[in-house]
Structures are given as structure tokens and as C-alpha cells.
Write a structure and sequence with these properties.
CBS-domain; 10 helices; Uridine Diphospho-n-acetylenolpyruvylglucosamine Reductase, domain 3; alpha+beta; single chain
Length: 293
């Protein structure tokens, strides 16, 4: 190939930006050019967000997006069918880590569809060991672009994340990785780039659930306990005792935490109201309407 022949990237940029012949020096330059193209209506905001998401996955590691061990929905290796079915129905998940004595020891994966053969009269034949599948284990440090490539090659949809000691630290699914690209395309809550906490008014805030407790404490000058959980979302789930739905609230540490956005796997966005009462944890019986539309 001739050295004078323009690269594919340069030809692509020339179509978007007539007159641009120099390739961007770094990713910041590239994103800047893409945002200019969006402003010129060459493509829309959703397309820009997905392109930025594709670029971002190579920077993120599994530990950045995994479901922590404490929040995993699991079944036990010795469970009977009568114990497994309620977990499957209640969670609506399709895959479940199978654990031995504790959550740190994952021995395999259960697929919900494999339970269909035990419907009706076949139920007494159920043995977990007959249907449990081998688990895929990945380190916390694995890059998301590498993990996505491995998911596609192996056709696996779930991997168990292990720490440096070989214990299960959490889990990650192919859906979690793809969410980084096509998940929350346009944040309707107008967070500044890189921000985690948005002040709405006196004593009212919108907070991304993956905000670390350390960042939360620093922002509000408080001392919420971060010994067991790293994020505000994890602390909220623990206080409620289950994965919540939109509108559920819990009060602790001088704040009322109300879930604004959540799915079947994790809490994503919270409304925080600072209150005077610093009493023990209490869960609201009458779930309020979400304060953020």
C-alpha cells in the first residue's frame, strides 16, 4: 500500500468534515470531531452516545460494571426444586450462579430453561448436579472489550468475576457489557460530564447509584459506612433488603433514598433528600411517586 494513500479513518473523516485531512492525535480529538458532526446534524445524539460507548469499553475493566457478590441472586448446590423455583420466578433472571457453602464459592451456572424438563410429574427426578453447567471465571482486571470478544466467541452470556484469592467477587453478563454501549443513551437528568451528584434544590439531589460512598461522604460531609459496600446503590439495596423497584424509599444516615431508576439487576439512579431525622433505618410503607420525572 502506498504511504501517500489516505487511511480509512482519514477518508471517513473527510466525508464528515470536508477539508479535514489530518487524523486526530488522540481519542479526545476524535470525540471532539464526532461531537461537531452531531452539532451539524450528520448523525443524532443516540448515535454519538453509542460511538462513545464503543470507545469507552476498552478503558473499562470488569470490576467497573460487575454485580457485587452480595447482590448476586444465587441458588445452592443442594437445593431442591421447590427451593429453586421461587428464586427463579421472583428474580426473572435466566441464569443463576450455583454456590456451595457460601457466595464466594461458585461451582457452576444454572439456566432457568433447563428446569422445564422437570415440570409436572417429572419434578421428583430433579437433581441439581444433572443440570448445573460449568461456570466461566474472569479476573476483575479484564478489559470489557476483551470480555465481549470472548463472550461472542464462546457464546457464554455470564461470567463469574474472581478476586486475587480466587474467590467470587461478583458476576458480569454480556448484557452488562452491551449496556455500556447502548444502555443509557441520553441521560435525561442533565448531569455534567463526569458528575455523579446533581443538586436539584434545597436538600434535594439526584445521585447516580454507582457513586462511591467515599465520594458521597465527601460531597455531603457525612460518614456513611463504607466497610461492606463501595457504592451508594449497594448501600441502599442492603438497607432495603432486596433489589428495589422505582419509587421505593428508605431512610438512614440523615437522608431519604428514593429509587428513580432500577432494573432486575441493579439500582441505577437515586433521589436523595437530606432530612433532620438521623434515626435508624426505616422503609417507607407508602411508596411515593418518584420526585424526578
Amino acid at each position: 500500500m502506498s504511504e501517500d494513500r489516505p487511511s480509512m479513518t482519514t477518508r471517513w473523516l473527510e466525508r464528515l468534515f470536508p477539508g479535514v485531512v489530518v487524523e486526530p492525535r488522540d481519542r479526545g480529538d476524535l470525540i471532539g470531531l464526532l461531537r461537531q458532526a452531531r452539532e451539524r446534524a450528520l448523525f443524532d445524539t443516540e448515535a454519538l452516545a453509542m460511538i462513545e460507548g464503543v470507545l469507552q469499553v476498552s478503558d473499562l475493566q470488569v470490576r467497573d460494571i460487575m454485580i457485587p457478590r452480595a447482590q448476586m441472586v444465587v441458588v445452592e448446590r443442594d437445593h431442591e426444586l421447590s427451593q429453586v423455583l421461587p428464586v427463579v420466578v421472583e428474580s426473572s433472571h435466566s441464569r443463576f450462579p450455583v454456590i456451595d457453602d457460601d457466595r464466594a464459592e461458585v461451582v457452576g451456572i444454572l439456566l432457568a430453561k433447563d428446569l422445564l424438563q422437570y415440570c409436572g410429574e417429572s419434578a421428583p427426578r430433579f437433581k441439581m448436579r444433572d443440570i448445573v453447567r460449568s461456570a466461566v471465571f474472569v479476573p476483575e482486571s479484564k478489559r470489557l472489550n476483551v470480555l465481549l470478544r470472548e463472550f461472542r466467541a464462546s457464546r457464554n452470556h455470564m461470567a463469574i468475576v474472581i478476586d486475587e484469592y480466587g474467590n467470587a467477587a461478583g458476576l458480569v453478563t454480556i448484557e452488562d457489557v452491551l449496556e455500556q454501549i447502548v444502555g443509557e443513551i441520553e441521560d435525561e437528568y442533565d448531569f455534567d460530564e463526569g458528575a455523579f451528584i446533581l443538586k436539584r434544590g434545597d436538600n434535594n439531589y439526584t445521585v447516580k447509584a454507582h457513586t462511591t460512598i467515599e465520594e458521597f461522604n465527601e460531597y455531603f460531609d457525612v460518614e456513611l459506612d463504607d466497610s461492606d459496600y463501595d457504592t451508594v446503590g449497594g448501600l441502599t439495596v442492603t438497607a432495603l433488603g432486596h433489589l428495589p423497584i422505582r419509587g421505593e424509599s428508605v431512610t438512614f444516615g440523615g437522608f431519604r433514598f428514593t429509587v428513580v431508576r432500577a432494573d432486575s439487576r441493579k439500582v441505577r439512579l437515586l433521589h436523595i433528600q437530606r432530612i433532620d431525622d438521623d434515626a435508624a433505618i426505616s422503609v417507607d410503607d407508602d411508596l411515593p411517586e418518584s420526585p424526578v420525572a
